[in-house]
Write a structure and sequence with these properties.
Distance between the termini: 100 Å
Order of helices and strands: EEHEEEEEEEEEE
Strand order of the largest sheet: 6-7-8-9-10
Strand content: 25-35%
Number of helices: 1
Helix content: under 10%
Largest sheet: 5 strands, antiparallel
Radius of gyration: 34 Å
Number of strands: 12
Shape: elongated
């Protein structure tokens, strides 16, 4: 037999409605008493709980989000939390803060190998506990040798070239300088082409 819950302390004659009557002083107490069956379609404004376990999907509808707090809780002035949500048409996983809270490091991976976004919004790649690569706002920093997967791969192209600042050059192929100036550039150390002879400018 179904149970009807009333958020009232009034006494109601069960014989007039033909069902068992439960009286409760608050909505929460009534919800506690009736439970939630597998076929119930019940919507609560909010639920405060210590533990929860779901054997099926946990769904956040359009406009909702999942938040995990490290400091404070929803509505507090000072918070630190991770959030999973949609921002329009973009799916986002963020670490955010309010007030005196700090937007902490965001990390993906387990153990000593992981991706990490630090507080300067730099994406870092760690392997075996050591940083291997960092993508900053102005540059990409490599902490280990940068190797091609096979010999003969291009670095840059004829239309998109790198400026090179480096030390020794060890090459087993042809080195071609196709755009050397044809007169002394008056820049110390710069190469120039004097009618087929490569010279070094004295500045």
């Amino acid at each position: 037999m179904a149970i009807t819950a009333f958020t009232s302390t009034a006494i109601i004659d069960a014989t007039t409605i033909g069902t068992t009557v439960l009286t409760a002083s608050t909505e929460g107490i009534a919800a506690d008493a009736i439970g939630l069956g597998t076929t119930d379609d019940v919507t609560f404004n909010s639920i405060d709980s210590v533990d929860g376990s779901f054997s099926d999907s946990l769904v956040s509808k359009v406009g909702g989000s999942y938040k995990l707090y490290n400091l404070g809780t929803e509505g507090d002035a000072d918070t630190e939390f991770g959030v999973i949500e949609w921002d329009g048409t973009t799916f986002e996983i963020n670490v955010l803060a309010t007030g005196t809270g700090t937007a902490r490091l965001a990390r993906y991976g387990a153990g000593s190998s992981y991706l990490q976004i630090n507080n300067s919004n730099t994406l870092q790649i760690y392997r075996a506990g050591s940083i291997r690569c960092a993508f900053g706002s102005q540059n990409i920093t490599i902490y280990k040798a940068l190797l091609p997967s096979a010999s003969g791969l291009d670095l840059g192209s004829t239309s998109k070239r790198f400026d090179y600042y480096g030390g020794n050059i060890d090459s087993t192929g042809t080195i071609t300088f196709s755009a050397l100036p044809t007169s002394d550039p008056a820049s110390a150390g710069q190469l120039w082409n004097d009618s087929g002879t490569v010279k070094i400018s004295a500045g």
